[in-house]
Amino acid sequence: MGEAKEEVEELAAISRALSLNIGTLNKDTLDSMMLAGKSANKQRIPVILDPVGAGATAFRKEAIQRILTEIDISVLRCNAGELAAIGGVEWASKGVDAGEGNIDLETLATRVAKEYNLVVAVTGETDIVADGSRVEKITGGDRMMGSVTGMGCLLSAVTAAFTAVSPADPTAAAIEALKFYGAAGEKAAASSNGPGSFREKFLDMLYGRKIEENSFGFEKEEGVDVLWQRSSRY
Amino acid sequence: MGEAKEEVEELAAISRALSLNIGTLNKDTLDSMMLAGKSANKQRIPVILDPVGAGATAFRKEAIQRILTEIDISVLRCNAGELAAIGGVEWASKGVDAGEGNIDLETLATRVAKEYNLVVAVTGETDIVADGSRVEKITGGDRMMGSVTGMGCLLSAVTAAFTAVSPADPTAAAIEALKFYGAAGEKAAASSNGPGSFREKFLDMLYGRKIEENSFGFEKEEGVDVLWQRSSRY
Amino acid sequence: MGEAKEEVEELAAISRALSLNIGTLNKDTLDSMMLAGKSANKQRIPVILDPVGAGATAFRKEAIQRILTEIDISVLRCNAGELAAIGGVEWASKGVDAGEGNIDLETLATRVAKEYNLVVAVTGETDIVADGSRVEKITGGDRMMGSVTGMGCLLSAVTAAFTAVSPADPTAAAIEALKFYGAAGEKAAASSNGPGSFREKFLDMLYGRKIEENSFGFEKEEGVDVLWQRSSRY
């Protein structure tokens, strides 16, 4: 929640996961992100990076490079256009939208995962999680999810919460987060008339959804509130 | 979306319209707006200005003057109180709300349109669009629209999207945007219980609304998604 | 609404209440808050303080001390963890959440109220309002209110609006604001499926709710719109 250089190290240190999001980046908030990220690394707290609009401007490209070079990231949560920018390949992206292209996303995700030693979770019609040795595809979700501002940012926060519960296995955390998010989106979209009602129903779904399997540290039928309780909020 | 001096020129240059909004202005964001506006002018990208609370403080008055003097604005999207402040006439405005007054808004809008060579789109019980040679009145909408924060800011963004599709005729773009917005507001209000449900239904309406006439670059029955696709987002 | 040093004194001076909220504090916004607070004090406009995450970082602790020392606050609107940080007692708080503890909140609220000569309005399962000579407990509300981001911040804004109508009796204003807010929350929760639908229904309730008693400057059956009209917005 904080953004001031004066306090982000302290805030990161009392957290159980840190989500860095460059959506409305400026020079000051970038400095704060560097401090927060290094503080989290020192405390062995997992760091999630959402490289919003990575390829849109030189400022964002440089910021992403600086973050990836100086901070150990657990999960890079992005879309295909952002991943392409980070991987240095061409992509028909204009601004921060994903655009379309024909590169092999699985290969690219694996390459970026290896290069920066992190888990790549790239969302699209099919989501892909790659950690360098393994690639998992996740289907589900709904195209309505692309029509609501902040859905990617919220997914990164949710991924951070899952990673907080499972810091030793960020691959599993990212996969479970994407499945969870996609299923909630699918159910919410089924009873929505547009992005306004979708947003409301989606938040209800995220809140009320029960875990379907005895996995990922949950007992069957435990709700997400357990997850929230186990991950620190601030 | 961006606000950093380091990148706003680049972001503006890859856009198809730029909406400048002084709602939570500070010295840094004003500098960024000047850079973004000049970049948009150089690329012949239409610039929309929302002079939030124009008359409320000396800082805002000076900022507006600086923007209007140094940047070519296509559409000035404001309320009556803000227009009065820009036109230098007395108005019973307190803070950033519109207040009430008896000046002839059509005359004032026309005068400001001529002085700064732009289209004035002023909202109120009846909306007025004036470009110096022509005045159009638009009725519709609902008073509930005045009870939701950000409705004016969103209208400016929607006006920018319409202007992106019709940069050569910002008058038509502003008129169509106001009709579209007002109709969506009227329908949403009809099934709302207050500002909370109105906001949800209004976003659904904006999203789902079909264009009623073969005009403004649309085929009949094309939806707003076509408009969004034609205007760049970032 | 403003945050720029260049204008906050002017904005505060044309207001009827000022709500200071340190949620996303930084050095610049703290400076602006000091200017706004002193301007409000000079004009005898009531100032409400929401010490978000007061105990979470040294920066916040120092900021709160500076505000409480240099500005006359009418109502301190906080949760138990924040009150404990201000009162200098131990509390099992981590980050900005309230945490849990066994101190006597009524005693603590009364002590802080006396020390800083203000009204303390502390929310929790039972809300407490203390002004040094009197303690009032308010029940009601719903636990769903704790699951929506910004509910505390909005309550502070609503408290500011009530105090604007009754600046001479901030104790009564805080009590009425808490009753009003809690009743709206209770009714909204009764027909909600989760935080998404709760938020929508809660805003509808806040808007549509009629005052139940001929008190606090209202006629019976006057709606909240009267309150909004009497408190200046900007």
Overall description:
- 3 copies of one chain form a homotrimer.
- The model of chain A is unreliable at about 95-100, about 220-225 and about 230-234 (pLDDT under 50).
- The radius of gyration of chain A is 17 Å and the shape is globular.
- Chain A has one domain: Ribokinase (UDP-N-acetylmuramoyl-L-alanine:D-glutamate ligase), CATH 3.40.1190.20.
- Chain A has a 6-stranded mixed β-sheet with strand order 1-2-3-4-5-6, with helices on both faces.
- In chain A, about 50% of the residues lie in helices and about 10% in strands.
- The first copy, chain A, has 9 helices and 6 strands; from the N terminus they run H-E-H-E-H-E-H-H-E-E-E-H-H-H-H.
- The N and C termini of chain A lie close together (about 5 Å).
- With about 230 residues, chain A is α/β, with parallel strands linked by helices.
- In chain A, helix 6 (about 150-165) crosses helix 7 (about 170-190).
- The interface of A and B includes residues 59 and 194 of A.
Short summary:
The structure is a homotrimer of 234-residue chains. The first copy, chain A, has helices at residues 8-13, 27-42, 58-70, 80-87, 105-116, 151-165, 170-190, 195-208, 224-230, and strands at residues 18-21, 47-50, 75-79, 119-123, 127-130, 135-138. By secondary structure, chain A is of the alpha/beta class.
